Structures are given as structure tokens and as C-alpha cells.
Amino acid sequence: MIIRGWHYKSMDIRHLQCITEIVRHRSFTKAAEVLHLTQPSVSKIVRSLEEELNVELFVREGKQVRLTDAGETIYRHAGPILQLFDGLVTELGELTYLNKGTVRIGLPPMAGARFFPPIIKRFRDRYPGIAIQLVEEGAKKIEESIADGSLEAGVVLLPVDPEAFETYPIVDDRMNVLVAPSHPLADRERIELAELAGESFILFNDDFALHDRIIGECRKEGFEPHILYESSQWDFIGELAGAGLGVAMLPDAMCRRLHPELVRAIPLVQPVIPWRLAMAWRKEGYLSMATREWIRFTRELFAEASVHH
Asked: How far apart are the C-alpha atoms of 222 and 19, rounded to whole Å?
């Protein structure tokens, strides 16, 4: 680069380290020992910088050396620059060895509540220096956030575009119908979607992939669902259904967490609506070291869990 008429080709950290150690030890020879260089190498490094800048940096007085005005200027700036450089090297090392970093993960409320507390605990135990930022949103919103780069990874509802996303499976479940214990369908062993044509529906709001999925399946069965309430809270949806305010749908895994005396969960058939979750990240785009490790670590844990089941 060119600064105020001087053409700097190669002033670098090595030059600043040499000058600093020479001043600290008042000797080229001792500076060379500290830097694990030969004394002629140190002299050559200093001389090359002096020639490049067309100034003298040191005055030799017998066996002693002292800085010139130009040398003083460089030395004064060298300390902070070397501190910043050491900090950079340290931080990069910590990132490389996963002693620090941040993972920003999108989790839908149902997935976060059901599957992730023990996973997050094990990751934190393994990598206490990595901060985990959880963004709780619907799977549809999370998919959009991964696509636009505001999230590096998150849990989505399959299917997603295989050209845009890499994924690994987390859970393969299906939807149940929730009704009040007093509902005429409460004692059924299974319910067909077409039987719900005259019902009022309680759905997730439109940030959730299930919102569009359920409406789309109803339309395939020839009816437009009458939506009475929308919510972002799965347990509240279950309570509304249990109170007789309408019918709802939740994955079987979540239905098992509801009290059967307060709300009935009945398998939905014709069609079966799957609830298949996956961890997703963009095929193209930057992934931090911490996020790459989150993906690797959690993938292994979910694979172990599926084998044990």
C-alpha cells in the first residue's frame, strides 16, 4: 500500500516483533534468542525495513542500541498491534478448538419442549465456552430464516427443498385429532379427516408449517376448515380443544404429554398427516465452527436415540 508517499511492500508482524524484542533486551543477539532466529537474520530483517522506509531505526553505540525518532514511532505503535495480533491468534485458536463461539438455532416450540432440553444440556457440558442462542419460532418461519441467512441452522418440518437445504432427521411422527371428552367422536379409535368438515378448528398460527399443511389437507378432502382460534402454544391448543371450543391436531409425541381425562387424542387416518422434523442448514453459505459442531454432535445423539428405540 502507499501512505504519504512511502511505498510499503512488506512491513509485517515479524518486523514489529523484532523491533520490540531488540528494545526489550537492548540487544540484537538476545532478541534473536527469544525469537528463535540467528542474530544475522534479525539484523537482516531490521535492515530490510530500514531500506524500505529509507530511515534508520536503531543507532548502534558499541554493544548497546537505541531507537531513532523513526524507530520510536514504530515501537510506540508496535505494542498495541502485537497485542491485537496475539488476541486474534488466541481467539482463532479458541474457535478452532471450540472453546468459544455462538450457535444460533431455530426451534419450534413443540420440538424444543419435547426433544431438546437433554440435547442442549449434553452439548453445554461438552462445550461450556460455546453460547447457545435459541430462537423459538414456527417451523415455517425458521425455514425462511435459514434460507435468508438470519439463522445458520434450525428444526424444520419436512419436506423442504433438497436443492436449498441439507438436513438430517430428528423425529418421524404423525398427527392425532384432539377433542373434548364430551365430543361425539371422543370414543373413536380413529378419525377420518372428512368427518371433521363441520367442526371448528384450533390451529397453530401461520408462522407454523402445520398451519398450511392442515388447511391444505382439508381442501384436498373437499372442505374449507372453519378456523376459530390460532395460537403459537401447543399446550394451550390442547387445553382449548379439551374445553370443547373446537378440534385440534397435534403430533402423537405431544399428545402423550396431555392428560387423557382432560382431552382425547385419536389417530387421524385418511389421510395420515406426517410430522417429520429435521435439523436443516443451507447447502450454500457460511457455517461457523460452533454451528458445524452443533450439527455433528446433535446428529450423532439423535442417531443413537433412534437405534435405541
From this structure: 82
Dihedral pair phi/psi, residue 285, rounded to 5°: 130, 165
CA distance 84 to 96: 18
Is 191:268 a contact under the CB 8 Å cutoff?
yes
What is the distance between the alpha carbons of residues 59 and 71, in angstroms, rounded to a whole number?
9
Q: What is the pLDDT of residue 189?
A: 96
153-157 and 165-179 strand pairing:
unpaired
The one-letter amino acid at 189: E
- 191 close to 266: Cβ distance less than 8 angstroms: yes
Amino acid at site 18: C
User: Which cell goes with 309?
Assistant: 428405540
- 169-221 pLDDT, tens per residue? 999 999 999 999 999 999 999 999 999 999 999 999 999 999 999 999 999 99
| DSSP-based helix, strand, coil % in the chain, nearest 5 | 45, 25, 30
Q: How far apart are CA 165 and CA 69, in angstroms?
A: 59
Asked whether 151 and 145 are in contact (CB, 8 A), the reply is yes
Question: How confident is the model over 117-155, as pLDDT tens digits?
Answer: 999 999 999 999 889 999 999 999 999 999 998 899 999
71-115 per-position pLDDT tens digit: 899 888 988 888 887 777 766 765 666 778 888 999 998 888 788
Number of neighbours of residue 158 by Cβ within 10 angstroms: 18
State how far the Cα of 114 lies from the Cα of 109, in Å rounded to an integer: 8
Q: What is the pTM of this model?
A: 0.69
Helices 109-126, 234-242: crossing angle, 10 deg rounding: 140
Contact 202, 296 (CB under 8 A): no
H helices of the chain, in order, are 13-25, 28-34, 39-53, 69-96, 109-126, 139-147, 209-220, 234-242, 252-255, 289-308
